[in-house]
Amino acid sequence: MVKIAMEALASCAGCEISILDLHEDLLQILEKADIVYAPVLVDAKELPDDVDIAIVSGSVRNVENRERLEELRKKSKTLIAYGTCACYGGITGMADLFNPEEVTSRTYTDNPSTEPAEVPSEVVPELLPIVHPAGDFTEVDYYIPGCPPKEKLTGDILIPLIDGEAPDVPKKSVCADCQRWMDHVEFDKIYRRVEGDPDPQQCFLSQGYVCLGSVTLGRCGALCTQAGVPCHGCGGPSLDVLREPSHDVYNGVIKRIAHLSKMPEKDVEKQIYDMGHVIYGFVIGSTIMEEKLVSKIPQLVKKEVKR
Amino acid sequence: MEIEDIRGNFKPELIPKETGGDIDDYEEALHVLMKFIGSMSSALEQVSGRGANAIVYQAGKRMGHEAGKLMEKTDDVEKALWEMGEVLGKEFYFEMWKPSDQEGYTIESNGETSVKLLFSDCVVRQALRRTGLPQKGPLCYLLYGYMVGAVEEVMDIKGKLDIDHIGPNACLKTLTIKWGGK
Amino acid sequence: MVKINVDEDACVGCGSCVEDCPNDVYELDKEHGKTVVVNEADCMACLSCHEICPSQALEHEDIHVAKRLYIDRKVNKALEKII
Q1: Overall number of domains in chain C
Q2: What's B17-178's CATH class?
Q3: What is the helix (H) or strand (E) element at residue B117, kind and residue range?
Q4: From the CB of residue A44, how many other CB atoms can be counted at a distance below 10 Å?
Q5: Which chains pack against C, by 3+ Cβ pairs within 8 A?
Q6: Are the beta carbons of A293 and B35 separated by less than 8 Å?
Q7: What is the pLDDT of residues B96-155, one digit of tens each?
């Protein structure tokens, strides 16, 4: 039997639940594998020493997360960074828009909806200066981005991996899955996601909404755009954006909108709002994305001032 | 990242190991150089505007003339280009290109000969993509100058190069040669 | 000989490749809203169409693939591990 362990670091545990979403495929997995440790799903309290496949979700935000990750690496043969947080910092990376003091004071001393209390000095682990994806601290064997990775994809990957085979899954952008048609339409105003009533058939970009579909790794079935919501980029950057130092989520979207609308790029840039959330919401923590010379992440991240 | 202080012995008559490095060192040096060049190009453009193109063009032309001196003189464009390909080498791999319905590579009109060149590998393009600068900027004039310089040297004529199309994998340029001396 | 494959399921029919290609390799099939390859012989493998395609629907076979030494090996290593 293949021994599988799962650990959630700084995350919502949605990734673990997404594995439960395999439904009947889960039985197929459990024929060949045991889930020996998964705080969200099973009762085991300690991580065994000889794990075959360790699935880690969530980002590394505090010293405890880092310790757990290092232990997981030590005790497993294959370590999978599962979900966008573990791969690129994900949505938890948005904490980097504030420094650790602001984050803790918001939680403990300065939260408008609770009674103020002192910042705890014990039990609660110390925050790291910024949010890190798992790959920043250990060697990771596989990355599976997605928020969470959809059950079909997870099945297509996990089942071959347990059998010791190489999974073969598509790696195209969200647009490849999206059923909307993209048009060249001249316009000069960018709408916020809450404004207006978008056409259900036409591409969001052609209608002046910021949709990250073309710069985001898909395999999600374009569920959001089908439901009438522009892509937020939860799958992390598409592989060409990740690969090319000259490509970035920001410039990719600006160029696309400028190209479709015939607006000058400068005018598009002026209308982009809340960049940390709308453009970089899921990749702020990624070192690869931050190190690009064209990236705007360095100017968004608030680093702790060392005194 | 920790920076290691490399200590070793040095003798004038030997090349000690410590002056070399592994692929990681070469990669880092290459990428730093690409970033420098990119930054220099945008600074040049900022300070001297379109003059930047002329400066880089001149630099390329000088290199082209130097390279051309090593090549055999010829009147045949195709032969000259083939030889230049050899000298430019793998880092600027180019070949002549023509649309499928055109017969030969060269087109003659008004006493000028033009030939389309497809540049596949190009260090300039790589440097631009490293830094995220747009293609067709001042740095591309380096290759302009180089080709023109080399052609002028080899064939004793006047030439010019224009960019038709840029792409991430190849760029198409037209080399036009004016017969009848410099 | 260059061969171009269009993933019809992926193509969103924006026609950007048709517009961008200098050699008129593509045409937009207006009825089905998909790109079709009409002039493969004139493709010079500049791959501008790859860069502009939002849905990564295009694939070129048997072309000269330009060196991309500018990509960090660290990035390549991470890319290989993404499944």
Answers
A1: 1
A2: alpha beta
A3: strand B112-119
A4: 13
A5: A, B
A6: yes
A7: 999 988 888 888 888 888 999 999 998 899 999 999 998 888 898 888 888 888 888 888
